[in-house]
Amino acid sequence: MREEIVNYLKGLRDSICSEFESIEASSEKFVRTEWDYNKGFGGGEMSVIRGKTFEKAAVNWSGVGGEHFPLDKNISPFFATGVSLITHMNNPKAPTVHFNIRYIEAGDKKWLGGGFDLTPMGFEFSEDTEHFHGVAKKCLEGFADGDLYEDFSKQAAEYFYIKHYQRERGIGGIFFDHYNSGDLDQDLAMWRSVGDHFTESVMPIYKKRIDMPFTEEDRMTQLKKRAHYVEFNLLYDRGTKFGFNSGGNPEAILCSMPPLAAW
Hints:
By secondary structure, the protein is of the alpha+beta class.
């Protein structure tokens, strides 16, 4: 099952990179860099592009394992694999998007996590918010007995909350962690649906926004909003903490950082 999951994740990574490259205004392509996990087995692959549309975007895959689970040394063994991405756009009118899906084994337990959320850099468009949440809701329809969209969007609002500013970092999305309903096949189908719908959630938005006119004042607004994003990722993000605590590759962990920000 690990092999099947890893193959899906790598295929998803390739598909997302291709979609992003299709709207990159320069001739730049994603550059891939492999890294090895030195505290167990496995490693990962960073895919980073820097161009005229994407000032910086990273679409990373990792698959690592070892004797002891990094968050609890009494649990062994562990295996974790996932895809995570972040975009930082040249045009301030185009929002930052974050996406992650992950599969984790810790001892005899297995669970899934992930989601996607949107962060306008000072320029929010109601039709973009409606579209983004509409796709998020669609990808969860038909799974589980309850309303997964309502549950996961609530979790996103709670998780992507910048405590020191007392507000969400963006317009939300969906987020879930430690998800295990007892039916792994059904859970994996839901998890894949989240992955398969990601580009549908954001590509129409990018195609509308990346060529909009903007001013230097707009650019400064964007850079100050990016600073809030940096603060969240370094202070509160679980993925960042897990990456460092597990001995992951620092460059891959910090791929989420924007190339420029302002305070």
